[in-house]
Amino acid sequence: MNNARKLALTSLGHFINDGNMAILPYLIFPIISKPPYQVSPIQLGVMYSLMGLLGALASPLVPITIRALGGAMRSMALGMMLWTTGLATLAASFAAGPYFLPTIYLSVVLMGISSTFYHPTGAAVLSEAYGGNAGAALGINGAFGSVGRAAYPYLASLAIFAGAAIRPSNIWVFAAVSLAVGAAAFAASGGRRGEGGGGQGRRGEPMGGKLLALVAILTAITMMRNAFVQGTNGFISIYLNQYLNVGLGSIGATMAVVLSSAIIGQPLLGWLSDRAGRRLMAAITSVGASLSFIGLVYTKNLGLAFLFEFFALSNFPVILSIVGDLFPQNQVGSANSIVWNVGITGGNVIGPALAGLLSTYVGLVSGLEMMAALGLASGVMWVAVPRPPKRRRVPLFM
């Protein structure tokens, strides 16, 4: 398979993977929060946390399937096909009657496992294809992920609200799309190949006390920030529906516009961080996201939802670049692993459950305001991080 075809398939896979991940929180949650389903905020938070947790716990399956299937492209294809089972189960839950809740929980489990495959396998395919010149390819590929995340809530709303009645079971259409792309990627992958990547790289030296303290600070900042962002994003479409009177039939189109801010935000903030400084931009994105959401609550200006997502979804490349700047080369991998797996993943798991718990006991608005305060605190904490001594180019898309 030539490189252009690999780029096309992985970009389409990124579009579908990130799009599939957007369907549950941005479109399904506001539907099932209302009668006849009436799922409580705490259960919605648990569902979204469970999806993130299983995505993390299932990550060892990626290298196992790469070796077993004979290639990263085949492992990516398997992930697409697993999305089919998750989305099909989600569609079936709306016809499951008294078994609705256990069936939708099963779909969350399947979707969480499915979500773990794309990013490592897609990056592996492109890195193998383009080697040290993969930057442009990864940028194009990343743009497709951002577009998919923005487009899918709208596309799914067209399927669900196509007729006179609301039909959430029409999500099966996206299960079929995932199956088709997965089958195409598997067929295009060619013969089975022995994949490397199982060898042990040179282990970094043990970190000293100062570096361990720095890892702890960065991990705390990213965990707090991600708890705020993921928790708020689990409920933002419900907030827009209940408090800004955005109708269920319009919520998909509204979220598509709001989420499109990341298509602009990631490259723009990456470019600015190269000029204004990583630490400053990391702090600005956290404070900006928090203040934008608080402003949304008090002014009910929908443009602030766009600004919230602009800051909220554009921060990850900057954070990981800061780690690369602050740590010796032989310890960057270890530091990034801790910041990502404990901070970012931990925040993704804790945030929705915390937001659901707060919303249940103090109300949705007050609960999300508390989450915004957590994000604001994480932004202020960047003053405890030293200025990076050197700079690397920030990847424009993640």
From TrEMBL:
Localization terms from the record: Membrane
Organism this protein belongs to: Thermocladium modestius
InterPro entries linked to this entry: MFS, MFS_dom, MFS_trans_sf, Sugar_transporter_CS
Keywords: Membrane, Transmembrane, Transmembrane helix
GO cellular component, as recorded: plasma membrane
Domain Major facilitator superfamily (MFS) profile as annotated: residue spans: 6-398
Gene3D superfamilies reported in the protein's UniProt record: MFS general substrate transporter like domains (1.20.1250.20)
Molecular-function GO terms, alphabetical: transmembrane transporter activity
Protein name: MFS transporter
Location (main, coarse): membrane
Pfam families cross-referenced by the UniProt entry: MFS_1
Transmembrane in keyword set: yes
Family matches, as PROSITE patterns: MFS (PS50850), SUGAR_TRANSPORT_1 (PS00216)
Membrane topology: Multi-pass membrane protein
